Structures are given as C-alpha cells and as structure tokens.
C-alpha cells in the first residue's frame, strides 16, 4: 500500500517514520522541501507537490498547522484534490475546523475519494513513540481501511462519528484542558499566597475528586513558575479558537474556554507563546501578587 | 485514650464507629441527641453537651456542618472550651473558615489545649470505609499525637502546615473541583449539541491531558443528565463560599470559582441543591439548548 504523507513538522515527521517502520511505501512532501530530507534518508520517496504525492497513493495523510494550511494542501494549486485517485482515502491528522473538514470531504467525494479527520493528542513524545490518541471521524468502512496505518502511529484509536466528529472531539479535549489547567492555576494561586507547601497540597488532593492529569503533571510547573514544553500556548490558543468557532456555529456558550483564550492571548502578547500551556498559571499568580 | 466525638452526621457517625473499632474509648455528642443512639449501641458513651464530652477526653473531635456550628460547639454555652482539659487536643474535621479556625485555636491555647484542623475528602463512602483523605494543619507534635486516631478514619493523611493550613488545602480542593467539573460540563455541552456519542469522546480524551477524576467518574452523569450522590451541590457551594472568603482576605482573585459559585447558587434556587455537584452540567446543557 502506497502512503503519501504531507507535512514534515514536529508531529508529521516522526509519524511518517513510524509508518515507514511498519513496512509501508511512503512518499513525503513538505512546503519547505528540505524538511523532507531526514525521512527520505530513512527510505521515503519525495514528491514536489501535494498533487504529485497523491498521484500514486492509496492513502494520503495530511498533518499541518491550521485550517488554511490544510485547505491549501488539499484544495490549492497542485493540491491533493488535483492528484487524488478514485477510491483513495485522505486522512487529515491536523487540528482544524470541523466545518472546513466537512466541506473538503464533500469536494473529495466529487473526485471519488473519501476523507477521515483524525486529529491526535499525546504531543511530540507520542508521535515519536507511536502512542498517540487518535480521534477519528468518517465512515466506518474508511476507518477500517485506515486502521493498519493509524495503528503504526497511535495506541488509542476511537471512531467518534461521521466526518468532522474527530475534530469536534479534539476541540472538546482542548476546552477541557483549558478549564482543568486554569482551575489548578486558581487553586495554586490561593495556596501560594497563603504560604502553603503546594507539593504537599498536590499530594493531599490529587488522589480525589480534584485530581487530574493537569494537576499531577503540570502542578509542579505552576509551583515553580517554569513551563517547559509540553504543548505550546500558541498552539492551544489556535485550537481554542477552533473550538469557539465551532461552538458559535452550534450555538453553545463556552464562558470558561473564552476566558482562557483571553488569558492565552495575553500570554502570547507578553512573549510566553512558546511555553507550555500550563503557563496560564502566570496570570493567576501575578493577579494574586505572588511574583511582585 | 479517651476520645470525644461531637457531630453524628453522615460523616461523623461512621468516623466515630471506626475509632471505636480501632479500640479507643469513645464518648459521643450530637445536638439532636437521638442521633447518638446507633453509635452508643456499638459501645460509645453519650454526653449531654460538648462541654461534658470534653471533660474526660484526651482528644476532642468535632465534625459538624459550617463555621458557626463549630464556633457554637467550641465556644458556645456548654461548649468544648468550658470543659477541655489542660494538655488536651481538639481535632476539627469540619470544612470551615481558616481564619475562624486560627481564632478558635488561640482561645483553646488560653486553656492550655491545642488544636488541629483536619478537613477530609472522600465522601460518606470514605467515612464508612475509613479511607478518607485528611488535610491537616497544626503543630507537628500535635499531629503525631493525633495520628493513631486519624489512621482509624483515613488512608492519606498529609500535614500541610500550621493551624488553618488544612482548611486552605480543602478550599483549594473545592476550587479545583469547581473548575475541573465545569470544564467537563462545557466540553460535554459542545459535544452533545454536535450530536457526538460522548461516551466515546470520554474514552478518547480521558487518558490524556484532558483527563480528570471528574471526567472519568462524573462524565456519564452529565451525558445522562442525572446526578445521584456523590457530594451535594449545596455543600460544595458552602465550601466555595469559604474559599472565596479566604481568597478575599488574602487578596487572591478566583474568577472561575466565583463563576461556579453563581452557577451553584442558581441550581440551589431551582431545587437541585441535593444533587451531586456534577449537576452544574445542567447549566451548560440548558444554555446550549440541549434539553429544550
């Protein structure tokens, strides 16, 4: 089976390598062409455009940054749409708008091709280790065809629903991350201002109803006011904007997600956009005068 | 060692029974006296007032509802303060104001007695099984004296800091519960309005950065819009008010905790105050028109 993989970023490059390792024929493309080289050195072919990459592929995977990037790769000049074979499958693993996803799926259908949205969580570490969580939207038959390739990249693969459902699940993931992390940041500000040993508080409350991945894995970042990656604030803000746009279309108010998006907006403006998203605790700490 | 236990409520009664089972002599008192009977039937003595209960005790435990209740039991007519022996120890396991706690500790000190604040989490199930998490504030030597008795009631016992620190840790616990549950409720509203199978979404996102006790253990309540106990909305609202008061005294803004307190205020007004605190999802669902 021939796999085209478009997008050799922090996520895409190791994901493509894992597909190679699983024994598939892989053709890669990246807008900045030299980023293709490390994966090509390990056995991938290179294509000069998304169109060219798609021309020979049974499955075309895209993993780029944002909605306009996926639209350029799929719909643009020399885009996948102009090269895709009848019966081929596109798997978009970027985190983008569910509405734009459904529109692209319709256009690909016009060429006899189908599409799955399959955004991931688990970060660059999960991409390297092949342990990503994959939230998939699409037809069951298409997902079945995709499984051997998805299994090379991920550990937990859940079929959420029809095309776009994977993107909505990812949006939900980011909304929950926003509020969970912020609640830890508020609790942290209260305890630090009161002079408590917050590592002890994390120990005391982490096993009960207040427990979360964020508290256990990012609480210490917030105590120390240092936020190594992780997942960048500016990428999380991008994902929250997707969630807020989807919520607007659906008529769902998300007051907490909107609040955290504003917090992250300020963090990016102050130059903290490349820190881990737990850096939102900077705001809670500073508003309490802890770092004054 | 003689233990006095004041407050035979849903929490206090099984906690006192566990102390009895551990082999201590226990004297109980409750404002509504007939509530003493089940524990007395298992071997506890009864006292007609907090003062009388304290008169023979090495350790006096209080476990009642709110700050004024503890103040009445400790400082009121026939309160513990008027019966306490020199060198005795008071352990307050209620969830109350850290400031009021420190004031009572001072007054007890005037009688040659000391005090530990030791609020708990883990609910009535934890009280029955003796698996509570106990967040303790006080002198290390006092905590050491208390340990044999605390071990009869709890599994995780953490010494957070000086008198009042246990209450602040409990306030932090409730602040984090508020935001964590609400973030799950927002994500839930987005997914339900989009028509997703939310059990699948919980499966897909629960193991990653969005994961929390609330998502894993209360997510299904929110999907089904049914909120069996659990921990009552009205008790959580009481605890949030304590947290907000402590935050006001310390100069710490808690915008999310204040928001959730308002949500719970409305729930109580609509007659949902005895549901589990995850009932805050009613607001997120209804604001999105899901139950219309």
- What name is given to the CATH topology of the largest domain in chain A? Rossmann fold
Shape of chain A: elongated
Distance between the termini of chain A: 60 Å
Classify the oligomer.
homodimer
Gyration radius over CA of chain A = 20 Å
CATH homologous superfamily title of the largest domain in chain A: NAD(P)-binding Rossmann-like Domain
For the record, what CATH class of the largest domain in chain A applies?
Alpha Beta
Named CATH architecture of the largest domain in chain A: 3-Layer(aba) Sandwich
Number of H- or I-type helical stretches of chain A = 13
Assign a percent range to the helix content of chain A: 40-55%
- Would you report the number of β strands of chain A? 9
Name the strands of the widest sheet of chain A in spatial order: 3-2-1-4-5-6
Q: Look at the helices and sheets of chain A and give the structural class.
A: alpha/beta
N-to-C SSE string of chain A, H for helix and E for strand: EHEHEHEHEHEEHEHEHHHHHH
Mean pLDDT of chain A: 97
- The fraction of residues in strands of chain A falls at 5-15%
Pick out the low-confidence regions of chain A. none
Number of domains of chain A: 2
SSE topology:
The structure is a homodimer of 292-residue chains.
Chain A: E1 2-6, H1 12-21, E2 25-29, H2 37-41, E3 45-46, H3 50-55, E4 59-62, H4 67-75, E5 89-92, H5 98-109, E6 114-117, E7 120-121, H6 123-129, E8 132-137, H7 140-153, E9 154-161, H8 165-193, H9 198-205, H10 213-224, H11 233-250, H12 255-269, H13 281-287
Helix pairs in contact in A: 1-6, 1-7, 8-10, 8-11, 8-12, 8-13, 11-12
